[in-house]
Structure formats: C-alpha cells, structure tokens
Amino acid sequence: KYALIGNESTCFCANEPGKYKLGTEACSTPCPKNETQKCGGDNAASVYDTEVTAPGPPMSIEIENVTETTIRVKWTAPQAFTRITGYLIKANIIETYADYALIPLEWQVSNDTNKSELPNLQPGSTYNISVAATNFEEEGPSISTKAETIIGTPDPSPPDIEIRERHGDQMLIHIPEARNVNGPVSMYRIVVSIELYQQGFITENLGNFTFADEQDLPYYITAELAPDEIKNDFIIGDEHTY
C-alpha cells in the first residue's frame, strides 16, 4: 500500500504509513535519479501512497486432505494488504475422465478463515486450486497448486463378456473395453460364479480358486488382466495363473 524511501535510495513497502508524521521539511534529501522528488532526510523517510488497494497473494497454500469428491485446502494470509474482507477459492479442471465438460467452481469465504473443504468435485481428476484475498470487490493475485481427487468406483458398469467358444470345462471369451468417468481403468478382474448356488457375490470375499475352495465360496477370481491384455481373447478353465 505504501512505499517508504529513506537514506537517498533505500526503499521498502509497508501496509501502514507509520506512527509519527513529520513535516515535509524533514524530508530534504533529493532522490539520486530525480532531484525534483525527495528521498527522505536525516532520521526521516518519504512516504508515498501507491494507491494499490487490492491485497497481495497469500503467503502459502497446502492441500490437507483429498477424497473422491472433496479437497481440503489451507493457506496463510498475504504479507501485503490494506484490508482483507474475504478469500476467493477457485477449482479449475486440468485433467479428467468425465465424458462431459466440467465447469470451473468458485467459493467465497470470510477473512477469518484460512482453510476450506471444496465439495462436488469429480473423482479421478486433476484440479488447479487457487486462493486469492479480496478487498470487497477487488481481487488480489492468487497462489495456486495442483491436486488430484481419488479414483472413484467405475461407472458405467462394464459391458458384458462375449463368449466365443465352449470346449468342455474351458470357455473362450472376449472382454470388451470398459470406460470409467471416475478415473482410469487399471485392471480387469474376471470372476467365475456358479450361479446354481449364487446369485452374485460379495466383493470383500473375492479371492483366487484356492481361497474360494477353502472358504466354500461358489465364486472366485480367475484372472486379473491389465488393459492391454484384453486385446486378445481369454480362456477360462485352462488351469493357468494370470
């Protein structure tokens, strides 16, 4: 807000002009590069109002906690300001797997707040989070950081497996590519379930064939495949480990 000049050319800034006001005659030293202006005097400094009323940027920003749909952000107040009436927080999408356009989000909080939880975010997405101090309608420069929300439950459900051939206990299948608006697809889990005994399965109880046999469960994981491995058809029941 204020520029203070003393000792001919020493300059520093302050939010307040100072406690003691001297007469203009106390600042009698001409500025080295412009003798028409004064640059302080003996035990005195010239004070110039910069007429800048917008606050400076917050000193720091930190991401405290992240979930699928929320980000908690923390910041410290600006060093330079005349008055801070609040803070403006923005979340702009950088990268997402959503199949629709995500609009920028904004939140306004009071001037006595230095942390906030940002809701309604998209899972598995990267955001640019920025915080700026405000002086009523004036917005100061912001400080920003990147944050990623946690990958969410795949949505929509994957397409049905296509059965290509059947040979005794073996089955040749094709696994169509799945999409997920809540993040990347990192693995395809192939589950065999004996529907004669079971109409579905409990995810927490899933394990390999040995585990299912020990627990007397009518379903088991027969393979876990990377996305590039589903390009080829897969055989269920060949007694191989995948």
Automatic annotation (TrEMBL):
SMART domains: FN3. It comes from the Eukaryota. Residues 57-156 form the Fibronectin type-III domain. Residues 1-51 form the WSC domain. InterPro entries: FN3_dom, FN3_sf, Ig-like_fold, R-tyr_protein_phosphatases, WSC_carb-bd. Keywords: Disulfide bond, Repeat. This is Wsck. The gene is Wsck.
